[in-house]
């Protein structure tokens, strides 16, 4: 588990804002509409949900969790609140100051959603917007420390595409029954696995100084093949890691079968992983958070 961020001089955080004091921001949440970084997406308003835990006045940097939701039977009329309860964006088990962001995707047709506004570096604009809104609330700027990208179902493959061109690369990547692969009629079903491999290479190179994580939960008849291919990549990277680091790192990089039905995978697993990235998911226990 990562330690809380160290305390720093409050006056440094307020520099340039013309403020005598910085607010100690208590846990809260809000829905926002007409988010500039999501302007290209079709769908309902509000289009962004923010939730944060305690942000102490001494903090100059925070972690951000972005969750990409899946498809919706509500189609283009889907309210963002529909995706909140099952997202698992629960911060009560997390010690580090953290902002959680749930953006509404782009309605394509029927029940399909994707996230084109977050491609090509668009995720960086969303992260900057989240930092800006939180800084406005507390009266002082904030920097990004750790970036956590999570996705469920139809948000899984867009998450892979997002990191392909993002400046801010996730420290932790959590995919919940979402690695369906590509349409075989259009090409290689495993297209994008090279993106995962490249990201894993960069992450393992930074271990253990800046610990990362990749946790993939899958249901075999839905997302098994791509998920197991990711498991093989992780196993290959682990085999090249120093022997003394393997047990520690292996707890944070895992592919495992989900023990609950599809709609509940993120709700059960993500709160545990936000508390500690090496958590053993007890799929059948009552939720702790």
Describe what is shown at a glance.
By secondary structure, the chain is α/β, with parallel strands linked by helices.
Overview features:
single chain; alpha/beta; Rossmann fold; eight-stranded mixed sheet; two-stranded antiparallel ribbon; 29% helix; disordered N terminus
Describe this structure in words.
With 289 residues, this protein is of the alpha/beta class. It has a single domain, classed as Rossmann fold, CATH 3.40.50. It has 8 helices and 10 strands. The protein has helices at 10-14, 81-84, 122-138, 156-164, 193-205, 220-240, 246-250, 265-275, and strands spanning 28-32, 48-52, 61-68, 98-103, 106-109, 112-114, 143-152, 172-176, 213-218, 253-257. The strands form 2 sheets. The protein has an 8-stranded mixed β-sheet, sandwiched between helices. A two-stranded antiparallel sheet has the order 5-6. Helix 4 crosses helix 5 (193-205) and helix 5 packs parallel to helix 6 (220-240).
